[in-house]
Amino acid sequence: MSLFGTPAAAPRWVSVGLIPLINLVLALIVSGLVVLAIGESPLQAMRLLVYGAFGYPEAIGFTLYYATNFIFTGLCVAMAFHCGLFNIGGEGQAYIGGLGVGLVCLFFDFLPFVLIVPLAIVGGALFGAAWSFIPGYLQAKRGSHTVITTIMFNYIAYSLMVYLMVNVLIRPGQMSPESRPFIDSATLPKIHEILRWMGFQAAASPLNLSFVWALICCALVYGFIWHTRWGYELRTVGQNQRAAIYGGISVSKNIVLAMVLSGALAGFVGLNEIMGVQHRILLNFVAGYGFVGIAVSLMGRNHPVGILLASLLFGALYQGGSELAFDMPKITREMVVVIQGLVILFAGALENMFRPQIEGFFRRRAEMAMAAAGAD
Questions:
Q1: How confident is the model at residue 10, as a pLDDT?
Q2: Are 139 and 146 in contact (CB under 8 A)?
């Protein structure tokens, strides 16, 4: 097996690049047929979507802002997946992680910015990890499947946040379930503000320093999974639990570890949304990022580089889709969601549809090459 789980007979780029590209093209073709069916030009729609995502500086900022959330939730799914777990609770873990970030910004705002930021990172990680610890423990010690427990914990997270925002953290004297705004030293600066401070002109967008932390997390996850003893044990458990037990590796310990790290990564969504953009704790700030992270991880083959590229794709779909709905009235926001859903369908549920034929083709080519070399 190769690094990305591709059979040895097929080159790595087939699984990493070719198959996702084919799935993406098929999703866009089907989306084009849907656009054509409502009487609009698919080529014009694609041009507007690409322009809306990358055509001007503000659009690029919004695309990277959305991609930041997808990087965190994609890494969350990948971390658990390498241990043989399917964590679909990133939505709830991001929700509770954002609560941790917000509490730090509310109650430690007397500290300077250079201390609040690392405390917010730790707060988001701890709260997200704590929320994923219980499903991990139940899987490791009681055999409760993480798919079921993490789904349930999503709903518990929603209910808990509603209670806290309505009864505990709501700003006195207001009806909207939001906390008081953070002071300036408890917020992350925007990238365009940093660039202007350095003397460069930049269009305003919600993109903030959490994007830099997302890139750092990609490097940290790669180093942990493929270049540490703990990552090796975690992958061994995910690939063959019997072999792991035979080698003296604790399966239960690694299951809990994978889920805790997975939840910590999801918790960083709060850095982008709560500390970087909203500057207050509020309801529904996760907005489905945890569920889209599943498709991002699958499309990225659970590798940080692939997740980064898939996150850029979905960020472009979110931002470009908004521009598309604005410029082509027949393509409503619901139609944009359909296009996004088709990409998720082909990249996720149907991502192995053409894999046997493609890998079989390369396998036959390899066999023919070997046979020709033997004949010579």
A1: 64
A2: yes
Global confidence as pTM: 0.90
Q: Are 48 and 327 in contact (CB under 8 A)?
A: yes
Residue 184: pLDDT over 80? yes
Q: Which domain does 190 fall in, by range?
A: 12-354
Residue carrying the six token digits 């709060």: 270
Query: 21 with 351: CB under 8 angstroms?
Result: no
Strand partners, 277: none
Task: Please check whether residue 240 is in contact with residue 260, taking contact to mean a CB–CB distance below 8 angstroms.
Answer: no
Q: Which residues contact 266 (CB under 8 A, 6 or more apart)?
A: 72, 73, 76, 89, 90, 93, 94, 97, 128, 132, 290, 293
Report yes or no on 319 lying in a domain. Answer: yes
Q: Which of 52-61, 126-135, 289-298, 337-346 has the lowest mean pLDDT?
A: 337-346
The answer as to whether 258 is a domain residue is yes
Q: What is the DSSP string of 264-290?
A: HHHHTHHIIIIIIII-S-BTT-STTHH
In a domain, 27, yes or no: yes
**pLDDT score, position 9:** 54
**How many domains is the chain built from?**
1
Q: What is the CATH number of the domain that holds 142?
A: 1.10.3470
DSSP 352: T
* Token pair of 30 as six digits: 């089907």
First to last CA, the chain: 29
- In terms of Cα–Cα distance, which of 71, 48, 9 is closest to 321? 48
Q: How many CA atoms lie within 13 A of 241 on its CB side?
A: 10
Domain annotation covers residue 7: no
Q: What single DSSP character describes residue 196?
A: H
Question: Which of 315, 298, 320, 317 has its CA nearest to residue 307?
Answer: 298
Q: What angle do CA 123, 128, 129 make, to 5 degrees?
A: 100
pLDDT at 144 over 70: yes
Q: What is the pLDDT of residues 282-309, one digit of tens each?
A: 999 998 899 999 989 988 889 999 999 9
